[in-house]
Amino acid sequence: MFKGLLGKKIGMTQIFDEDGVVVPITLIEAGPCYVTQVRNPEKDGYSAIQVGFSETKPKHLTGGQLGHLKRTDAPPLRYLREFRVKDTELKAGDKLTVEAFEIGDAVDVVGTSKGKGFAGAVKRHGFSGGPKTHGQSDRQRAVGSIGATSTPGRVFKGMRGPGRMGNERVSVQNLKVALVDTERNLIGIRGGVPGSKGGLVIIKEARKN
Length: 209
Fold this sequence. Notes:
Helix content: under 10%
Largest sheet: 6 strands, antiparallel, barrel
Number of domains: 2
CATH superfamily of the largest domain: Translation factors
Strand order of the largest sheet: 1-2-11-10-7-12
Strand content: 35-45%
CATH class of the largest domain: Mainly Beta
Oligomer: single chain
Number of strands: 12
Distance between the termini: 16 Å
Structural class: mainly beta
CATH architecture of the largest domain: Beta Barrel
Order of helices and strands: EEEHEHEEEEHEEEE
Radius of gyration: 23 Å
C-alpha cells in the first residue's frame, strides 16, 4: 500500500503515551491529497505518482497548470510533488488521506529549513574559532587557514566557510508516527521536522526502516 502525503506544518505540542510519558510531537495537516498523474516505464521511463495538495483559486494557477489538473477530478491545487514507486494500483483522481498511516509507522519527512541569512563559519558549521588569548585581537571567530602554500596555491572547491545558512531541502529519517486524526486530517510526528510553521512538508514511508 502506498504511503505518502503532502502536508502543512502546524507546530509542536506534546501528548502522553500509553505509559503516561510525555512525547513531543510535530502536528502536520496532511491531505487530503489527490493523485494528479501516474507515470509508467513504458511512457515516461520510470514509475512514479504525482500528488497534489492545498486547494486554491484557479486564478492563482497558470493555464498550463489548470489544463494539467483538468485531466483528473482534482480541484485546483497549489503544490504538486512526485513519489517514486515500483508499482501502484492508484489512478489519477484518487484521494489520499492520513488513513494510510498508523501509529508506530516509521516515516521520512522532507521540508525546507528555516532561512537564517548570512552567517559566519562558527555559527554555520560549528567551527571553534581562533585562540582567545596570546595577543589576538580579532581572530576569535575567524575561519583560520583555508589553503596550502604555493602548491596548489588556491582554495579547494567545497571549503566550508561563511555564507547563506538555512533555506535548504532537509530530510529527517526514521521518525515515528505518534498521532493520527482522520477527522481533522492531522498526523503527529514524534520529534521535530524541518521548516517553519505553515511550510510544506513531504511525508513518506521510511526507506531505511
